Amino acid sequence: MVENGNAGGGRNPAFMADPLCHNQILLWCTEEAFVLQPANFPKAMGKSTTMLSKLTDCLYVDRKSGHVRVDKPPADQTLRQLKPLLVYGCLGVVQFHSGPYLVVVTKREKVAHLHGSDVFEIKKCVVLGPTEKQVQGLKRKFHTAEKKYAQLLKMACEEKNLYFTYASDLTLNTERMANILRSPDVASKPLFDRQERSFLWNYHLSKKISAAGVDAEPFLVPVMAGSIKQRLGLDFNGSTVAFTLVARRDTGRVGTRYWRRGADESGAVANYVETEQILALSDGSGLASFVQCRGSIPIFWSQAPNIKYKPGFMFPPVEKNHLSQLAFDRHITSLMERFDKIYAINLVDQTRSERHLEKAYRDAVKRNGHADLAYYAFDFHKECGHMRYSRLSKLWGEVRPFVFEHSWYALGVFGDSKQTGVVRTNCVDCLDRTNVVQAYIARKVLEKQLVGLGILRGNQTIEQNLPEFEPLYRFMWGDHGDDISCHYSGTDALKRDFVRTGKRTKKGMLGDLKNSGMRYWLNNYYDGVRQDALDLFLGHYDVSSEPESPFQRGKTSKNGKWLFLSALFSLLGGVIRIIRNVPKISSALLKRGNGFSDDYSDLVHGFILVTLAGSLAFYLKLQGKKLVERPQLRFDQVMPW
Fold it and tell me: Distance (Å, rounded) from C-alpha 234 to C-alpha 217?
């Protein structure tokens, strides 16, 4: 939760907006249709007699055909006999074999106030599907698939860190939103039509309702996945400011850690996230926004799970290298259309297996040859290993001229500037190392902005001159990194203690060990089905295109996790038995002669269990690819070449 107050754009009129979506809706489920009626009318729609008449109209979703229309409430008393469900927005409708599924928000929490609009996090979604009669009426071959689709849709709706507003363009960074609002023609469009489609999480679900016309669109809320952290009313040496961190997750090649790597043929990359740091004076006199991005190395490569702790990297055959270069070029072109110039920082190891990724990236940059694309390889583990995080100053020395030349977006007392370039950072996962570096660069930019305001002077730092804000800043960036990591890997980020405290601690290292183990378990035995859920929700898989159930092909073995657990517990049980028999063995050796007449059955059992564990481990390694939980809807995208 955040404190009351203004933020983001301060009181700048350019960012002030009345609600454009219905913020409370009554939902009835009849045998024929889902019926939605506004319970709280948007102020922005005016109060004319004609408009008030429209506000009483209902949205109807036919439960058989999925047809959507806006019409008058039922003339009979049908709805009065049913108890409505109060919802806070509609994500949309998706059609499966038995009929439409409606997704609505039933619980929300205010987490920020950005650019004149309250920002809410979705705490609970409800999926309403066809009647049992409709499901039973399906052809037998679709029964199992339909139930699976419904389960996957519900799983996708349980994803954390989903946000929406009723008035603001949350999928747009501050500069792009300001540019849109300057154009009356664009600013007057429905809220959904103004969103950045690549960051619009429910674009696929919204299609049916959007197609029903402008009167239907206010029932929809545009949803963004990522992270929003904000603190209001901060005292910076007499100036009251709001500080906000926003992460926007791209939907193009979204997925889980090992099942989505690199780029696809369109140039979309895995784990692409745009991070925006916003500093705003609370009196509305100034605002500054700095945008960075992260994303998987934008070439064709893969790292599919195979039981091993760190699967090997896979690249396309030589004859398909031109397709990988084409994907790279498309990705760079897309970035340049948004930011003009790019400074790419590659943090992967330049030795061992990761060196192949570094070389492939460097070669792709050379072949691209664009003058506005700069590339810098910084071996993070080599430079900053053994707690030498002060070596980040070397990286900053390289990137500093680019950052300060291409600046950030600013208004008011911050000056009037545009951001004409972006720093694109990656490691292998684009999580832990990347978050450390992005937080470091953002800190340097913030200090420069505060010097411009006169809050800091010369080479003064936040740590020295704003000691109360220092831990807050670190923890906000730490939470920001955790949110991004949870989306992609299923756990909090590693190295989170350094981001939060500036130091590596034993507690932090133990936390990394725990999270690394959890990532291994999730990546091998749960992420396949989660990948299917995301592909289904985002429209990367078309249910209507399949004449047969996709869950029958390439069926995943369910034995992998149990074999792994059997091996683990056999090893633990065997080691414990052997250790507790060590004193008995020592005593027997000292006695010599008849010393081995004692009962050693427990010790024998220990060796048997260790042998069993070794055998199971060998089998797991041999059959690893067959024993992991694989995605079944778009497995072709694991290796898109």
Answer: 37
* CA–CA gap between residue 592 and residue 3 (Å, rounded): 76
Phi and psi angles of residue 601, each rounded to the nearest 5 degrees, phi first: -65, -35
pLDDT, tens digit, for every residue of 552-586?
A: 665 556 677 777 777 777 878 888 888 887 777 77
DSSP E strand stretches across 115-238: 117-128, 162-164, 223-236
> CA angle at residue 183 from 276 to 110, to 5 degrees?
40
The alpha carbon of residue 556 and the mean position of all alpha carbons in its chain are separated, in whole angstroms, by 26
Give the residue ranges of DSSP H helices in 295-354: 321-339
Q: Which among 81, 26, 95 is positioned nearest to 59, based on CA atoms?
A: 26
Q: Which of 93-97, 518-522, 615-619 has the lowest mean pLDDT?
A: 615-619
Alpha carbons 476 and 278: distance in angstroms, whole number:
13
Is the pLDDT confidence value at 17 over 60? Answer: no
How would residue 51 be classed by pLDDT, with cut points 50, 70 and 90?
Answer: very low
Q: Are 615 and 532 in contact (CB under 8 A)?
A: no
8 A C-beta contact, residue 260 and residue 528: no
Rounded Cα distance between 45 and 52, Å, is: 9
Do 2 and 111 meet the contact criterion of CB atoms below 8 Å apart? yes
Q: What are the distances in angstroms from CA 129 to CA 63, 261, 410? A: 8, 33, 47
| pTM exceeding the 0.90 threshold for the entire prediction | no
Nearest to 533 by CA among 98, 105, 158, 124: 158
Q: Buried b vs exposed e over 208-242: b needs ≥16 C-beta within 10 Å? A: bbbebeeebbbbbbbbbbbbbbbbbebebeebebb
Residue 600 in tokens: 């050693």
The closest alpha carbon to 411, from 104, 168, 179, 92, belongs to 179
pLDDT in tens, 431-481: 999 999 999 999 999 999 999 888 998 888 998 899 999 999 999 999 999
C-alpha closest to that of 276 among 176, 126, 415 = 176
User: Are the CB atoms for 178 and 418 separated by under 8 Å?
Assistant: no
Please say if the pLDDT value at position 63 is more than 80: yes
Angle between helices 527-537 and 506-525 (to 10 degrees): 70
Of 439, 538, 446, 542, residue with least CA distance to 495:
439
